[in-house]
Specification:
By secondary structure, the chain is mostly beta strands. The chain has a single domain, classed as 6 Propeller (Neuraminidase). Helices cover 4% and strands 38% of the residues. It is globular and about 55 Å long.
Length: 313
């Protein structure tokens, strides 16, 4: 289960998996696929992958973008999460504990073709595909604390990008491939940082006393520049979703509920963001328009549904 604010994120940054409103809710039936063996999931159209503990442990699921239907992609006794789509929407990279420690794997969008990408006794998490699909950025504790690494999409040639005694984690590529944004505690509290793909040009984008984490990026649209979404407690108390320009300017708060909101993911056209929230009593998936309007709840299962990721189109 998620924890709140700084204590929750420290667990995320250290890579420990849990093993074991607003708007009108959409009528959800994301249990249909595994209750009915005759159900044939439609892998076309707009889809959202997400993490859920609805069958007793953390798995990766896929549902339609309106919250309907659904299928369990991983169906494994281990904990599976940290979803990252390949830019063509054909593959998903993810972290799993199925080998006894946390490693990065990839699979086809229907759950087939599972391939192990990392093989290290320490924790590897938070994969992110480059826009051309050739490389994966990820976080690893293999050198003593969480740092950002880069490897080829097949897992070969891992290279360390950051080297700091504090935590560097949650790397996400800019949509044009020019850089990476990531979470770091190197400034004394949680901030969103940016760097070039080779680890140079480090820049703190949210140099603030607030706790900022969980970045996501969106390409430019017809009505504005590229944006970064992130989570912050700067409004006091709970976590909300914010967006900003790539240089940290034009900060905008999207969510204002008296609850924790986390894990934002943009549609390819940057018009919508999905996120998870405990505003309904447990963690569920929501969608909001990028200006912060018209929030809709997608899942209503009593188990926690978290970390949504839109399939690229």
């Amino acid at each position: 289960m998620k924890q709140s604010n700084r204590s929750r994120h420290v667990v995320v940054a250290l890579g420990l998996f849990a093993l074991a409103g607003c708007g009108s809710p959409v009528d959800v039936d994301v249990t249909k696929a595994w209750e009915d063996p005759e159900f044939d999931f439609d892998y076309t159209g707009d889809l959202i992958a997400f993490e859920s503990q609805r069958d007793g442990n953390r798995e990766i699921y896929l549902m339609k973008a309106d919250g309907s239907d659904g299928t369990n992609l991983t169906n494994n006794a281990a904990a599976d999460g940290d979803i990252a789509w390949s830019p063509d929407g054909a593959r998903i990279a993810f972290a799993t504990t199925r080998d006894g420690n946390t490693e990065i794997y990839s699979m086809n969008h229907d759950g087939s073709g599972v391939t192990r990408l990392t093989d290290d006794p320490d924790i590897d998490r938070f994969p992110s595909f480059s826009p051309d699909g050739s490389r994966i950025a990820f976080a690893s504790s293999r050198d003593g604390n969480s740092e950002i690494y880069m490897m080829n999409a097949d897992g070969s040639n891992p290279v360390r990008l950051t080297d700091d005694p504090e935590e560097d984690s949650e790397p996400v590529w800019l949509n044009d491939g020019s850089g990476l944004v990531f979470f770091s505690t190197r400034s004394g509290n949680g901030d969103i940082w940016m760097m070039a793909p080779d680890g140079t040009g480090l820049t703190n984008l949210t140099d603030d006393q607030a706790f900022d984490s969980a970045p996501g990026t969106a390409a430019a649209t017809f009505d504005g520049p590229a944006r970064i979404s992130f989570v912050s407690d700067r409004a006091g108390g709970n976590l909300d979703i914010y967006t900003m320009n790539l240089d940290g300017s034009d900060l905008s708060r999207l969510t204002t509920a008296d609850a924790d909101d986390f894990d934002s993911s943009w549609t390819s056209d940057a018009e919508l963001l999905s996120f998870d929230s405990d505003r309904g009593g447990d963690w569920d998936i929501y969608v909001i328009e990028s200006p912060g309007t018209n929030t809709v709840r997608l899942t209503t299962h009593p188990a926690d549904d978290e970390s949504p990721a839109w399939r690229p189109r």
